[in-house]
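hiii so my PI (J.) wants the whole complex modelled not just the main chain, which honestly fair. so below is everything: two entries, each one labled with what it is. i double checked the lines twice but i was tired so who knows lol
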Amino acid sequence: MNSEPLPKPAASFLALLRRALTFTSAKARLVVLVALCLGFAFSSPYFLTSKNLVNVVLNAAVVGILACPSTLLLVARQVDLSVGSAVGFAATALTVVAEKGLGLTAAVFAAIGAAMAVALINAVAITRLRVNSLIATLGTMAAFRGAAKLIGGGRSISVDGFGFLGQFRFTIPGTEFRLPFAVLLLLAVAALFAFLMRYTRYGLHMYAMGANPKAARLAGVALELNVVKAFLLSGAAVALASLIRVSEIGATGPSTGMGLEFLAITGVILGGASLGGGRGTIGGTIVAILILAVLDNGLTLMRITSYWQEVVRGALLVAAVAFDQLRLRRGKPEVRFEL
Amino acid sequence: MSKTPAAGLGSVSVAAGLRVPASASRAPAAGLGSVSVAAGSGVTVSASKASAAASKAATDSPSAPAPAPLLEAENLSKRFGAVEALCSVSFSINAGEVVGLVGDNGAGKSTFVNIVSGVLHPTSGHVRFDGNLLDLANPAAARDAGIETVYQGLALVEMFDIASNFYLGREVLRTGIRRPLGVLNRRLMRNRSKASIEQIAAKFPDLAAAVETMSGGQRQIVAIAKAAFWGGRLLLLDEPTAALGVQESASVLELIRGLAADSNRAMIMIAHNLQHIWSVCTRILVLRRGSLAADLQREETTPEEVVAYITGVR
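here's the output for the full assembly
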C-alpha cells in the first residue's frame, strides 16, 4: 500500500502529513534530535559549548544505561518499573556500608548485591509466582523505595573518595572536550545490548517471545529462563548506574534514583519499542535518550522552569506512541527481526 | 545428533528397508526433487525413482520383511478433569500413508495431535514412533524424533521473515569463539531457507518480508514448507485449509500432495472439509467423542459413509 510512489507535489497539508508518516521512525528521531540541537543553538549561545554538550551526554549516561535492559525487556513484552528504586536501594547500601567504615570495596559489593537481589526477586515473582511483570515490578518499586529509606534512615549520607566513575574525564586530544568516563560506560553497555539483540540467538528468542509467545514456546524457546536472564542483566545495569550516581553526587538521600524508571521507559518507547513486544532497537533508544537530554538541557538554558520540562516529557511520551500508532495503521512497520 | 541442515536441498535419505535411524533423518530436506537412497552400508545413491523401487520391493516382494508401522498408538487416553478427550484409541500408520483425521468438534483430533507433537502427555496408553516408545517432554523432543507439526493457527512469528521462522528454536550458530556467545549464522540460514522455499513455491515476491504481510494461504505454505524443510518423517497438519479461500486451499493441497509423494514419510491431516480429505488422503480415521469410530481406506468408502460415522448415525 505504501510501496506506490507518493504524489510529487506536496502542496496540501494532507500530502505533507502523509510524507511525514511514511518517513521511517528511525530517521524521524534523528531529524528531531538535529532540529532540537539547531533550535537550542540559535536560542542560546551556551548550548554548543563543549562544557554544555558534555553535560548533556553525562545526564544521558545513567538513564541510557538503564534504558538498554529496559529495551531488551520490552521487546519480550516485559517491563521493569523497579529500576529507579533499585538504584536508590543499591546506592544507599553503598553509602551505609561505607559510613560504617567497612571500606569502599565492601560498599561496592553491597551495592552490587543489593541490585542483584532486587533483580532476583523480580525474576522469581514473574517466572515462578507468575505475577505479571508490570505488577511485580510496581510492587518492588514501592517496596525498595521504602527499603532504601529503612536502611538509610531517610537521611542524606555522604561518601568520600568515591568519585572516579562519575567524575573522571578523558580529554580528547586537540579539543576542549572532556569526555566523562560514565559516557564511555554507556557506550559499552549500549554496544553490548545491541550485539545481544541483533546478532545472538538470545536476542532472536527475546523478539520471538514478545511477538508471539505461543509460537516461541512451541518452537522450543525457553521463555522463563530468558526472562530471568533479562532481569539479571537489568540488575547488573542498575548496579552500574547506582555506582555512577553515587560517585557523581558523592551522597545518597531518600529520593536517590527517583523517576529514573519513567525516563528510561520514556526513552525506550520514544525509541520505537512497542508495548506489544517484538519491536524496538538499542539504537532507537539511545537516540531517544539523547533527545530527552537535549530537551531538558535546552529548556533549562532558555530559563524555562523544570515544571514545564516535566509537562513536555509526559506529552512527548504520549505523542510518540500516538505517532507510532498512526504509522502502523498506514502500512507495514519497518522495525522487525530479519535474518 | 547432527542438527546441521543438509547441503543438498530437495534430497531425502531413505535407508533400505525403510528404517532410518533418527539421527540420519534430522537434516532438513524438502522432499520434492531428487531422492537419494542410502543403502544399509551408508552408500548414497542419487536417483529419483530409487525410493519408489525400494518401497515397492519392501511391500511386494514376499521375501522382504513387512515394514514396521511408523506410528503406533496403543490404548491412548487423555482426560482433562472430568472430560475424557481421548479414550483408548489404538491404530497404526505406515510410512507413505496420508491419513485424514476427521471428527466433529471436540472429538479429540487436536488432543491426539498435541500428544504426538509433545504438547500434551497422555493420561494412559502410549505411542510408538519408528518402533521406539515415544516419551515426549516437549515439542522440541518431538521434532528431534522426526515429528513435524503444522499447528492450527500456524505458530509462526508474524513479525519475522521466512528464514527466521524456519529456524526459530533450531538456529545455526557461528563456529569458533562466536559459538559460546550464541552468534547466529544469518547468511547460512537465509540462503538455505530461501533455496528450500523457492523450490516448493516460487510465488513469494519478497522472501525477506515479514510473514504478517502475507496472505493466509502464503502463511500456510510457509508453515508447511518449514515442516518439510526439516525433513520430518511424520507430518501433522492441523486444519491446514481451515481459513483459506478456494484458490488458496487448492495450492496448499497441491503442496501437501507433492510432499505425500515421498514414500518414506507419513502424514496425518485434520480437516473438516471432506473434499480436501479426499483430494490428498489415502486412508481416513474417524474420531467420535474421543473414540475411534472408523478406520477406512479411501477407495472403499464414500463421503456419505464418513459423515455417517462422524455424526454417529453408524
